[in-house]
Hints:
The chain is α+β, with helices and mostly antiparallel strands. The chain has four helices and eight strands; from the N terminus they run βααβαβββββαβ.
Amino acid sequence: MSQVNCWIRVSPYILRSILEDGRFKTRFEGCSSLASFDDLQLRAETEQKFYGYELDLPASERPIFGYLCGQENGAATHGHLILDEYGSCAIRLRDEIKARTTFCIGDSLRSEIAPQSFNEDALPENLDEIIPYVEAQYHSGVSVQDIAEVVFHVERVSASIKELMSELAERGIDSRIEIVE
C-alpha cells in the first residue's frame, strides 16, 4: 500500500479563514460541514461515547474531521465524490499529526464501532477503495503549522486561487493545482 496521509477538505473561502485564524475550526464552531446543526447534540454524545469528551466541552477543543487517503493528491477515488462536497482544497497534514489521529470506516456519527488510533498496520489494504471514505478525527486542534501541502482540485485557476497559492508560499506551505473536468 502507498503512503497513507491525513487530509482535510475545505473550500477556498474556508481555507482563507483558516489562514487568517491560524487554525481549523470544529463543526461546533460553525465551520464547513455536511452535518446539520441538529446533529451537533448527537455529535457531542458520539464524542463522549468514543473519546470520553464531556458534553459541554468548549467548541474549540473538539476534534477536527478529515479523511485518510493513499492518493498523493488527496483525490476522491473510484468515482465517489463525497469529498468534493466538502470543498476543492485538499489539505495534506504533516505526518506528526498521526500521533493524535483516530479513524473509522465511514462517518463516525453513524458508527457503532469506536474509531481506533492511527496505525498504518491497522489500515485496510484497500483504503482508497472504501466507500465513501475513511474518516479521520484529529485531536488537540489543527493549526496552520500542521499543514504540509494544499492541492487545489479545480476546473480552472482563478485569481483568488492564485492569491491563496501566493499566501501559502509566503508561509512556506507547498501548493499545487490538479485540473478536474
